[in-house]
Amino acid sequence: IFPGSEDAAGQKATLGVLGGGQLGRMFVHAAQRLGYFTAVLEPDAQSPAGLVSHHHIQTGYDDPAGLAQLAQLCQAITTEFENVPAHTLQTLALTRPVAPGATVVGIAQNRIEEKAHFADCAAVSGVTCAPYTVIETPAQLQAVQAERKDLLPGILKTARMGYDGKGQVRVRTAAELEAAWAELGGVACVLEKMLPLTAECSVLVARGWDGQVVSYAPQRNVHVDGILAVTHAYEGSLPPALATRARDAAVSIAQHLGYVGVLCVEFFVVEDGSEHGGLVVNEMAPRPHNSGHYTLDACDASQFDLQVHAMAGLPLPEPRQHSPAIMLNLLGDVWFDANGQPHEPDWATVLSLPGTHLHLYRKLQARAGRKMGHLTITGPDVASVKTVARRAADLLG
Ligand code: ADP
Ligand code: MG
């Protein structure tokens, strides 16, 4: 689907996205830069992506009329919202190319299926996930309490709908495990062994309909309270051998899924000498990812460009990073001072620092923990990028 093309009904090439958040907004920007029209399906009237798209279909993700309108407007459709109902993607796929597809999104939505997929791939990817077990029934809970003490201390995570550290509880004892499962509502969960992490990293892979695969070098991620805070994207941010293993593993995971579009695979780096050989696969996101936002400013093709290329069937350029980069997430907390009073950060000073690239998502209300924007710092060398990033982080409190 080339930007200048029209379909049989004379409709100009239009790309659609389910979800109106910041990922949808940056996708829309990338699609429009290439000359596409865009359509966003999103229930919120004032969403970051809806505000910048040519078309905004303001309905729920399972509204048949809205989906029919999206399919009618668009020549290809993607999703930025991970928890879109599987049947929504299936319905759209009856008449339009949908990337990523319903099956792979379904796997990524459910930690139980996701881990089973990682286990399936382990022989090829060379990487396993943390030791874990599934808890779906009281009988399984009791069996775990009796027989899987090796998983404690651990983290109990709901199989579905968890993100940014939500839907998970850290447990040390069998009694805490029982209380945590009740606290999470007795829903399907996985109990995962707590690992001694030395770092976390992620890899972005893009795969086309024809099986062409490109990827970025792994980046190191720092989470605070379960939310991504900082991404370090430069040579030396991870040990080179480990980075190569992570990148190869992510590519094989995408290939094994027959994935189409941008996939992010997240890894734990654990203390050396462990049975895991230093690298453990954690989870995957079937879409561009917060840890890949630096690609907008530090690479010659961003993760959103690659999403557009992949879904439209255009060739995938091998992305090249031209500058070392550090990305700082801007959560709503930045808009409040130490006393909890609303305040506007000193943007003039932040933007006067060399190599700062500010991205704001136009969310109407700042709330603690809400992703409002990000700041990427690029520069000629790692040392100067680190210096500016430290200064910017200080200014942003
Ligand atoms: P989410 O879907 O919320 O991102 P994750 O499974 O990635 O859920 O967990 C959030 C964070 O919690 C991780 O980035 C990591 O810092 C920490 N964490 C999760 N699982 C483990 C584990 N098994 N051992 C140690 N830390 C973990
Ligand atoms: Mg995560």
From TrEMBL:
Gene Ontology CC: cytosol
ATP-grasp domain residues: 119-312
The UniProt record lists the keyword Translocase: no
Pathway: Purine metabolism; IMP biosynthesis via de novo pathway; 5-amino-1-(5-phospho-D-ribosyl)imidazole-4-carboxylate from 5-amino-1-(5-phospho-D-ribosyl)imidazole (N5-CAIR route): step 1/2
Binding annotation for ATP: 111, 157, 162-168, 192-195, 200, 223, 282-283
Keywords: ATP-binding, Ligase, Nucleotide-binding, Purine biosynthesis
GO-annotated molecular function: 5-(carboxyamino)imidazole ribonucleotide synthase activity; ATP binding; metal ion binding; phosphoribosylaminoimidazole carboxylase activity
PROSITE patterns: ATP_GRASP (PS50975)
SUPFAM superfamilies, alphabetized: Glutathione synthetase ATP-binding domain-like, PreATP-grasp domain, Rudiment single hybrid motif
Transmembrane segments: none
Keyword Cytoplasm: no
GO biological process, one term: 'de novo' IMP biosynthetic process
EC assignment: 6.3.4.18
Pfam families linked to this entry: ATP-grasp (PF02222), PurK_C (PF17769), RS_preATP-grasp-like (PF22660)
Catalytic activity, as annotated: 5-amino-1-(5-phospho-beta-D-ribosyl)imidazole + hydrogencarbonate + ATP = 5-carboxyamino-1-(5-phospho-D-ribosyl)imidazole + ADP + phosphate + 2 H(+)
Family classification: Belongs to the PurK/PurT family.
Its biological purpose: Catalyzes the ATP-dependent conversion of 5-aminoimidazole ribonucleotide (AIR) and HCO(3)- to N5-carboxyaminoimidazole ribonucleotide (N5-CAIR). Catalyzes the ATP-dependent conversion of 5-aminoimidazole ribonucleotide (AIR) and HCO(3)(-) to N5-carboxyaminoimidazole ribonucleotide (N5-CAIR).
HAMAP family named among the record's database cross-references: PurK
Assembly description: Homodimer.
Protein name per Swiss-Prot or TrEMBL: N5-carboxyaminoimidazole ribonucleotide synthase
